[in-house]
Amino acid sequence: MAPQRTPAFPNGSAYVDALQHPQTAFTDPDLRSGTVKQDLLGFPDPLSGNFASVFKVTSTTGRWAVKCFTRPVEHQQRRYAAVDTALNKLHHDALVHFNYQPDGLAINGSTFPLLKMQWAEAQELLRWLDRHHTDQEKVFHLAGQLVDIVAAMEKAGIAHGDLQHGNLLVTDTGKLTLVDYDGMYVPALAGYPATESGLADYQHPERRDADYGPGLDRFSAWVIYTSLYAVATNPRLWTQLRGRDDERLLFAKDDYLDPANSTAFTQLHTQGDPQLARLSNALASFARTRSLDRIPPLDPPAVLGAAATTIPAPRRPSPDAGHLPDWLTDHVHPTTAPATPSPADAEPELLLQRFPRDRRLAAARVAAVAGLLGAAGGGWGDRFLSINPLFWYALAVLAVLVVRWLYKHHPQTLARRKAVQDHRSIKQSTAETKKLLTVAQQHLADLEARRHQRQVAIDVARTQAVELRTKALTAAGNALRNKKQQLSSERAKLGDGTPLRQSFVASKRLRHVEAALKNAVIADDPPQDINTLRIRYLAQQGFQSAADFVDYYVSDHGGRGERTYLRRTPGDRGTYVNQIGKGCAKNLLAWRNNIKERAEQSAPRTLTAAEEKMIRDRLHQEVARLKQDSDLAEKQRTDAIDAARAQEQRRHAELDAQQTQLETETRSEGNNLQRHAGRAASELRAAQARESRHATLVASYATITGPRFVRTMAWLVRD
Q1: Closest CA relative to residue 45, chosen from 23, 66, 31
Q2: Which residues are CB-neighbours of 608 under 8 A, at least 6 positions away?
Q3: To the nearest 10°, the Cα dihedral for 268, 269, 270, 274?
């Protein structure tokens, strides 16, 4: 008995046909009860990769990515079984559910393997950074998650094998998810060859197939972490170090070949951030090493020389249209792929129509002979027969009319006329369908323009929110610095208390002089020329002691003679006192100055012990007040920063809601427009195929003409 030949793997079309009936194609009960995502024409919608087609299946237990292989992979079952076992032991939330089923599909009596993975509703890292690279907290949080997942796999002896942006997805909650485990290394696969070499912009220049081991991801992890750290430190690097269409982060494969002359390494090293410079130098040194085994595991604190920093908790980012890897992409706005021409649509061979040799052609020949006879009879008949020439002419005309009627009503002529009319109608229908497609495409373009405009407004608002927070932080820092300078100046003025002592002594001496002036009553010790009457006049105006006046001035009283005024304070307008002239005022001021001089000479110049203690207590109080003011300024700065960050978070939350609304509205409307456009495109292709067929048919009747009919009738053309 001959050995049974293993059936060849189905191609993508065979899987599409089989998965129209998932209840019979799948052997997994969960998948058998599920629904396969369909395209616009109602067929299963595959995502084709290098050696597999991926279908999205929705079941009662969730949404799944089902990978159906189109060609065998060496040691396939052994590899996937080992990866399945290792990941189930790891239990990390960044890894999706993974299940290899060697007999998961039944097609035409044979079974084939499939890979069942949890569908990741997330956005590919590159697209996520395009939108969020200015949000420092989110990028830092993502970097922290990367360190966590890489450390967990390193501890378990697992390596992904193709660590790059396309396999790192970010969910709508800001959670990092790692997908695509085809090239993964697990301890059970030690000694096996690698199945892929990874994306070159993330891999060490010296990576070889023999490097298939637990340290496979170390260089890639350092590349991604350094890029995320640099973007979080300076978001402008995201656009400075990348082209618009670059499918990478900040580094390209050429940067690793010559780090000294690399623009990326130079930029990172000259940013003025010492930690970023250390990361850049470390990555450059890893790129120069000749052995991947000498690259250490991803451990940022070991390079930065500091304890691990606390990664800020992420805000909830807005849901995003899934820009996923090529094998795991959910088309938010599906586009209609060009249809493969069916045999019915193929261009038919052009076979020209002919006038057949039938009774109509024979009748036309008879009529033509009669016409010729009539023409001849009209010209020469009267020479042989006595018949009116009009008879012969009438016979000729009748023969022409008969020939013309036979041509007009010939089946081939009628078929040609119908073909031309049908072609004209189909062309009009095609033009109308094309117009519908143009309108649908214009609506799609308008929708995209509106979406882009609103997206730009949201992005500007996010930038403004960050700028407002930055300005608030700067203002709070400036206010604190100014307050600190003021308090420092006040503390310097206090010194060791000498200014307070001098001030207290001056105040004490001033009070002594003021008391002496107040106690010097004019009536008790009257100055020269101040008699009793003048004392009474002075008392009537409130001048009873030396403390009641400070000076005097003389006015000419508007040209009516001099008048003398006593001033209670240096700046007042003065008070006129009867009988007090310039001489009396001068004597009063001299008397006051004499009392003041004696009081100043006798005033105390030192402090008592009690007063000295009071000064020390006052100094301590002032120092304590300055310390309290400093603490209050610090608290005000902290409160201002917290308020600014809270305001920024509230603004981002509002913008996240707007982003969600924008995505929901544009997704729904876009899907409807895409369906209309797809339907119109399908109808247009069918109409164009019909038009082409009818054009060919019309062309085949090119010889069905009056002259051709006459020539055929006259045996001038042989069909």
Answers
A1: 66
A2: none
A3: 100
| pLDDT tens string 194-240 | 878 888 999 999 888 878 888 999 999 999 999 999 999 999 999 88
How far is residue 276's CA from residue 268's CA, in Å, rounded to a whole number? 6
Neighbours of 426 (CB within 10 A): 18
CB distance 45 to 38 below 8 Å: yes
Q: How far apart are CA 46 and CA 69, in angstroms?
A: 12
For residues 521 and 530, give the distance between their C-alpha atoms in angstroms, rounded to a whole number.
Answer: 12
| Residue listed under structure tokens 């003011």 | 629
At residue 672, does pLDDT exceed 90?
Answer: no
Residue 559: CB atoms within 10 A of its CB come to 5
CA 475 from chain centre, in angstroms, equals: 29
Q: Average pLDDT, stretch 133-153? A: 92
Strand order, beta sheet including 176-178: 122-124, 168-171, 176-178
CB under 8 Å to 141, separation ≥6 — which residues? 174, 311, 312, 313, 314
- End-to-end alpha carbon distance in the chain: 62
> Could you tell me the CA-to-CA distances from 664 to 6, 459, 655, 667 in Å, in that order?
48, 17, 14, 5
Residue 707: C-alpha distances to residues 25, 186, 189, 697, 714 (Å): 64, 84, 83, 20, 10
CA–CA distance, 671 with 676 (Å, rounded to integer): 9
pLDDT of amino acid 335: 35
Name the residue among 212, 276, 288 with its Cα closest to residue 250.
Answer: 276
Dihedral sign from CA coordinates of 272, 273, 277, 283: negative
3-state secondary structure of 613: helix
Of 57, 296, 76, 328, nearest to 177 (Cα)? 328
Higher pLDDT residue, 670 or 436?
A: 436
Rounded CA Rg of the chain: 52
What is the rounded distance in angstroms from the CA atom of residue 425 to the CA atom of residue 191? Answer: 70
* Average predicted confidence (pLDDT) for the chain: 83
Beta strand pairing status for 47-48 and 62-69? unpaired
What DSSP string describes 434-495?
Answer: HHHHHHHHHHHHHHHHHHHHHHHHHHHHHHHHHHHHHHHHHHHHHHHHHHHHHHHHHHHHHT
- pLDDT exceeds cutoff 60 at 416: yes
Q: Within 10 Å of residue 290's Cβ, how many Cβ atoms? A: 8
Position with higher pLDDT, 75 vs 503: 503
The answer to whether 34 touches 22, Cβ cutoff 8 Å, is yes
pLDDT for residue 232: 93
Report pLDDT for 326.
34
- The answer, yes or no, to whether residue 100 has pLDDT greater than 90, is no
The residue type at 573: R
Lowest mean pLDDT among 15-24, 205-214, 336-345, 415-424: 336-345
Against a cut of 0.70, is the pTM above it?
A: no
